[in-house]
Each structure stands twice: as structure tokens, then as C-alpha cells.
Design goal:
- The chain contains ten helices and twelve strands.
- It is an alpha/beta fold.
- It has a ten-stranded mixed beta sheet, with helices on both faces. It has a two-stranded antiparallel sheet with strand order 10-11.
- Strand 4, helix 5 and strand 5 form a beta-alpha-beta unit.
- Helix 1 crosses helix 3.
- It is globular, with a radius of gyration of 19 Å.
């Protein structure tokens, strides 16, 4: 079980290079094809409806500006691929906003790598809810790279947030190619008595056995907390020196608005290590 197609979102943000590095290392480890996609930020539906007129000089200037940004991101990606030695890669410019452009290509990829939203570095081509939109709508696992903190490894010491839900099951299964290369995988269960039927008599035993059958070295810990589980999870990740968090993404969309669960929202806003989410 490996990733054979990895998709990474490209832009001109300060952390785009780190995102590309993370995606490249995963692609090399799995001998996967890596696709780097930059978006112009203009919805494809505007082009399709014929609402963009080439006769408007101001609009043309703005569209050219957006296209040039995407082209610069693509050029940087190509240089990085040569430096990293990625055997199979391609670059794409999507005439679309980020959610539509990346979301569509994600359906033909095994893993999507995007960046956490940095509200202090707004982008003309990416809406603030971009990461959660991809988690909720792509149908693919999404590895979100934080905009703060430095980390030298990814998925050598991953932490799984396990609550035996459909979402966390998807996340764990989707993360197996990464988990199999880990030195040690920690599985954390918070307040298991809240859903005793899901965990059985010995919380964590079943998921540990499942992962062990894949050759994954696992340790399980059970925690009781009366505070916010999202912050408790981040604190535990810090204490364990974890370099990736694996968890289900909880929420739903109402038109374009992303309505996320409390733990998911906390992690998306406060992550300091890469987070692999599936919905």
C-alpha cells in the first residue's frame, strides 16, 4: 500500500517551499508521481460563462498579474524537483480558485499536500477556508503543513487521535503508507467512556492490532480530560515530540461556508506540526 500520485498546492507564500519539500520527500519514498499545481484564483465558472471580457484593460492587467504569480510558483517548483531528484513530476496551472482547482485534481491523487491558512499573509488566489474545503470535499487524505514552527522530519513519530469514528478510521487507513515508515506510532484516546461501545473493553486494543498487522510499531495511551480535546491533543503531541498528527476531519459545508467541529477547528487554527486529515 503506497501513494502513487501526490498533489501539492503551489503559491508564492513564504511556506510554499517547505510544502514542496514535504511532498517531494513523500513522493521519493513511495516512488510516486508528484503534481505541483498553482491556481490563478479566478473561478473557472467565470471563464465558462463568458463573464470575463478581454476588452476591459483593468481586468486584463489583474488577470495577467494572477497568471504571472502562478507561473513563478511553477518555475520554482521545477527547480526544486531537479534539486530533490524527484523522478516523475509535472506542473499545472489551473484557471480556477484554489478550492475548485486543487479539489478537482485531488480526485485523481492519493494524497494532497496543502498549507495551513495564515491570516497574516493573505493570498489573492486562496480563500481562508481552503484547507478545510479540501478536507471536506476532495474525498482524499489531506496533509496540512503549518505556517509556523520548524520540523526536520515528518511521520517518523506520528500521533493518531483515535475515537473509533468513521472519520478517524478513514484517516488512519489513508495514513498507512506514512505510518509504515515510522519509528513509532502513538495512538491517543481521550475520554473513551464517552463512547464505550466504540472502543470495547480495552480502548485502543483493536486499532493497535489492526496497525500491527501492517507491520507498524504502536503504543496506545488513554487520557481523561475535562478541557478542550483539541488543545489537550496539541499538548500531548508536544510532550511526545510528535512530528505528524493523524485525525479525522469533522464538519460539513453549507454552500461555501465550512462548519467544522470544535476539535478540528482548534487543530486547523493552532497546529505546529503537519496534520493528516480525512473526512
Amino acid at each position: 500500500m503506497t501513494y502513487k500520485t501526490v498533489l501539492v498546492h503551489l503559491d508564492e507564500s513564504s511556506r510554499s517551499a517547505l510544502r514542496v519539500k514535504v511532498a517531494a520527500e513523500i513522493a521519493i519514498a513511495d516512488n510516486a508521481h508528484l503534481i505541483g499545481t498553482a491556481v490563478t484564483g479566478v473561478s473557472r465558472f467565470i471563464y465558462q460563462d463568458g463573464n470575463i471580457s478581454a476588452s476591459d484593460p483593468n481586468l486584463t492587467i489583474h488577470l495577467n498579474f494572477l497568471r504571472e504569480r502562478a507561473e513563478k510558483a511553477i518555475a520554482s517548483f521545477g527547480k526544486s524537483m531537479q534539486e530533490f531528484g524527484v523522478a516523475s513530476f509535472e506542473s499545472v496551472i489551473a484557471n480556477d480558485e484554489a478550492g475548485g482547482g486543487i479539489g478537482l485534481q485531488a480526485r485523481y491523487s492519493d494524497l494532497v499536500v496543502v498549507g495551513q491558512t495564515n491570516r497574516d499573509e493573505p493570498s489573492p488566489s486562496v480563500l481562508p477556508d481552503f484547507p478545510e474545503y479540501i478536507v471536506m470535499n476532495s474525498g482524499r487524505p489531506v496533509l496540512i503543513v503549518p505556517y509556523t514552527s520548524d520540523f526536520s522530519t515528518v511521520a517518523k513519530r506520528p500521533l493518531i487521535s483515535w475515537d473509533a469514528s468513521r472519520e478517524s478510521t478513514r484517516a488512519v487507513t489513508d495514513a498507512i503508507p506514512l505510518l509504515k515508515r515510522a519509528d513509532l506510532v502513538q495512538v491517543a484516546i481521550f475520554n473513551p467512556k464517552a463512547t464505550p461501545d466504540a472502543h470495547g473493553e480495552q480502548p485502543g486494543a483493536d486499532i493497535a492490532l489492526y496497525l500491527a498487522r501492517h507491520g507498524i510499531k504502536v503504543e496506545v495511551s488513554v487520557h481523561k480530560t475535562s478541557t478542550d480535546i483539541g488543545n489537550a491533543l496539541l499538548s500531548l503531541a508536544h510532550d511526545l515530540d510528535s512530528d505528524m498528527l493523524v485525525m479525522g476531519g469533522y464538519g460539513h459545508s453549507r454552500f461555501r461556508e465550512m462548519i467544522m467541529g470544535g476539535v478540528t477547528r482548534t487543530i486547523l487554527e493552532s497546529m505546529t506540526i503537519p496534520v493528516l486529515m480525512s473526512h
